[in-house]
Amino acid sequence: MASVTLSEVRKAYSGFEVIHGIDLEVQSGEFLVLVGPSGCGKSTLLRMIAGLEDITDGTISIGGRVVNDLPASQRNLSMVFQSYALYPHMSVRRNLAFGLTNLRMPRDEIDRRVADAARILQIEDLLERKPRQLSGGQKQRAAIGRAIVREPQLFLFDEPLSNLDAELRVQMRVELANLYNRLGTTMIYVTHDQTEAMTMATRIAVLNKGNLEQVGTPYELYNAPRNLFVASFIGSPRMNLLEGRAVGQGVDLPGIGTLPAKLPAGSVTIGVRPEHLAIGQPGDLSVEGTVSLVEYLGSELFVYVDLPGGRTLLAQAPGNARYRRGDTVALGFRAADAHFFDAEGLRLEAVL
């Protein structure tokens, strides 16, 4: 296991900076997920840690050693890519052993490592197959096995599940989490899917346009987002956002009412997650609207409610609830469940 430290790391292409001075400490033995929208720089950051991209400025340390000038082959890490990158003419066994053979490792040690990786990933019966004979999930297991046999101090994953269908992605999420629990090796995982981040990570680092917005546990990011970007990015479905103005002892929401919460005077954005909008129940603030869409997901419903002022709120309800398009419903929410952000999008703590 190894810690990873990034200090003022920057990356520029032809003078255009895409990573803007990131400071990040990855603790030894943790599963850190880098998450953010497409183009935010998360894969570039991972490739710099791997040694596949040069850094423009700053330092990267792995296990307490600065690796800025070390090639990828000398960083004692393994990387799993979005594409499986298996050699099509080789069996799974030979794919797993190939890198170790090039290192001139003794045959009995190669066999031991391949057998251990196959057992961990439950692909022992696939070792003699060629990649064309494997399903997508089996190919991904083989690609992960090739990384495991190196017995590195650090695993890097670059969106490894994005080529899989929805059901298989859920299955592989569970398998990767179990793999982490068995190996205990430091892992850094890149994804644009915040559900993957929330379900697997010990900590999450949220990136946006080359900047690090917040680092914390899934619980911290969901319940105490540091700014408006994190609040709206983390959580599925997205948080409801309402524009208002703090005046005196409350926040005035035009066309809705006043939410009792004491904040510094000025523009305020209030965020309310769908599960905190109660249909047909009173709250610190209630508003009526018309149901415009109902999404049935079995165990729950997502109900879209159009307000008189043109806004639409999304509320979550139990799966056995009965709402139809055109129904008039009342939505209530508590100030204690709301998140408050100032005009710059930074989190505010309200006095309730």
From TrEMBL:
Domain of life: Bacteria
Entry similarity comment: Belongs to the ABC transporter superfamily.
Residue ranges constituting the ABC transporter domain according to the UniProt record: 4-234
Organism: Devosia honganensis
Keyword field contains ATP-binding: yes
Record CDD domains: ABC_MalK_N (cd03301)
PANTHER family in UniProt: MALTODEXTRIN IMPORT ATP-BINDING PROTEIN MSMX (PTHR43875), MALTOSE_MALTODEXTRIN IMPORT ATP-BINDING PROTEIN MALK (PTHR43875:SF3)
Protein name: ABC transporter ATP-binding protein
Keyword ATP-binding: yes
Pfam families xrefs: ABC_tran (PF00005), TOBE_2 (PF08402)
Keywords noted in UniProt: ATP-binding, Nucleotide-binding, Transport
GO terms of molecular function: ATP binding
